[in-house]
Amino acid sequence: MSKEWTNEAAIRQWESVPRAALEASAVDGDFAKRHLVNPVLLRMLGEVAGRRVLDAGSGDGYLSRMLAARGARVVGVEPAASMLGFAREKEADLRQGVRYVRADLARLPDLGGPFDAVVCSMVLMAVPDWRSAMRGCVASLRPGGLFVFAIVHPAFEGLWRSWRAHGEYRTRRYLAEYEVEQTYASDFHRPVSAYLNELAALGCRLRELAEPGLDPGLAARAEAESPGISGYVDLPNFLIAAAEAPA
């Protein structure tokens, strides 16, 4: 990467997300999460009622709230104070029983015992010390517990922008690690093999890998307002994995 990044520096960026953006995604995330990420995450997690679930990198808390509404006993961990404060405000209103903890995923505190499942949605690609974060997620599971994570697909990070400009996807770099600037905070590109090899090194068994595509009818309806969204029909902008912790 072009400069030395730390988790602390990345967290400071996430503190800048405006309240309006948090409110806009408070129910079920943005368009992409609503139609591409959430359905796969929830299917992979399966029945969560009565299960203890860690939402690792819970952000504004929308996924924690969705899981709690399905009967899960949820702990949300988020390092950015502004986003955590927003999530706690929603919990005070809804009283779903979600417990929010401020912590860096790379240095998780004692969260009260092992979890049946850990979900880490759209987080790891934004964490400089991502290996420690993944290790913490897996270590938080009971033996054989389920770890589900979603990231921007490393092979198609600029899909929307490229499709809008060229009507096709173009990229020049894949194998290198580098910063990817976003609206509020940076992501960091790493090849798919980095994530999967780390899962293997942690002793996890890969259960499923998904690369969801957008429904063509939905894409056609959204194209006028969001030019380039049709690229999501045949190319995946997200990579979602489910793995079992060592037994």
UniProtKB/TrEMBL annotation:
One of its GO terms (biological process) is methylation. Keywords: Methyltransferase, S-adenosyl-L-methionine, Transferase. SUPFAM superfamilies: S-adenosyl-L-methionine-dependent methyltransferases. Residues 54-149 form the Methyltransferase type domain. One of its GO terms (molecular function) is S-adenosylmethionine-dependent methyltransferase activity. The keyword S-adenosyl-L-methionine applies. InterPro entries: Methyltransf_11 (IPR013216), SAM-dependent_MTases_sf (IPR029063). Gene3D superfamilies: Vaccinia Virus protein VP39. This is Methyltransferase family protein. The lineage of its organism: Bacteria, Bacillati, Actinomycetota, Actinomycetes, Streptosporangiales.
